[in-house]
Amino acid sequence: MREWVSRIIYARDWPARALDRWGGVRVEVIQHRIAVPRPGRPPLRIGFVSDLHVGPLTPTRLLEAAFERLAEQAPDVLVLGGDYVFLEATAAKADLIARLVARVAVATKIAVLGNHDLWTDHALIEAALERGGARVLVNRALRLPAPHDDVALVGLDDPWTGAPDADRAFAEAADAAVRIAVVHAPEGYPFVRDRGAALMLCGHTHGGQIAAPGGPIVVHGHLGRRWPAGLYDIDGLPLFVSRGIGAVEIPLRLYAPPDVAIFTVL
Fold first, then answer.
1. Whether the Cβ atoms of residue 248 and residue 208 lie closer than 8 Å to each other
2. What is the pTM of this model?
3. Nearest C-alpha neighbor of 258 from the set 32, 40, 68
4. Which of the following CATH numbers is that of domain 2-265: 3.40.50.720, 3.40.50.300, 3.60.21.10, 1.10.1740.10?
5. What are the b/e assignments for 201-224, b being 16+ CB within 10 Å?
6. How high is the mean pLDDT in each 10-residue block of the chain (266 residues)?
7. Rounded Cα distance, 226 and 242, in Å
């Protein structure tokens, strides 16, 4: 019902077009270092971005700025955390997603899906990601090429609307010394817990999207409310929750600026 109302209120994407013309562009680049025993290996730099929400509430200039920041950081790997659209997937949105992902010139790119993707034509979104050079991991793992072939990225299905299969995904990474889990939302944590992951990357929360100076006002999901944004140590597992880039429901972010993250795995 809410999405039907949004289609009417935000017809012809007028908020995004207005923000493209008059809105400011600010994307925070968050840097973290993760210490993992990797003798003889060079540092691995992972770029992470989530929740693009291409659609009527997210200005194209903001999306372009986010991927420009990522490209400037020159990561070894690009990881995309899901929720690429808001409302329906269209050919025009898919083309924009493909162009954005292609802007980051790295050999290895992986993506997972989010709840908004699975509510629409996710095959169209997956094809766009692949055109941009990203491999979509749905309960699968990908071993990185040398000199980082000791690392595997483990991508799980969305915990809200998908069917995470951690047994299958982590089995494909069983012989990797370092496993990095990627799942759209913090609610994926129970599927990652106790599986030896060195890092978990997720988004979904938008950091509340509308927050007060002291923190988010409303975050959906029990674990999202517990871990709304930032880097947490959960019983020895570093868990990072991105605020993402785009918006849903209303064309506004307050005290929850868009972010991209760079992780250096040492």
1. no
2. 0.97
3. 68
4. 3.60.21.10
5. bbbbbbbbbbbeeeebeebebebb
6. 76 87 90 95 98 97 98 98 97 98 97 98 98 98 98 98 98 98 98 98 97 92 96 98 96 96 97
7. 14
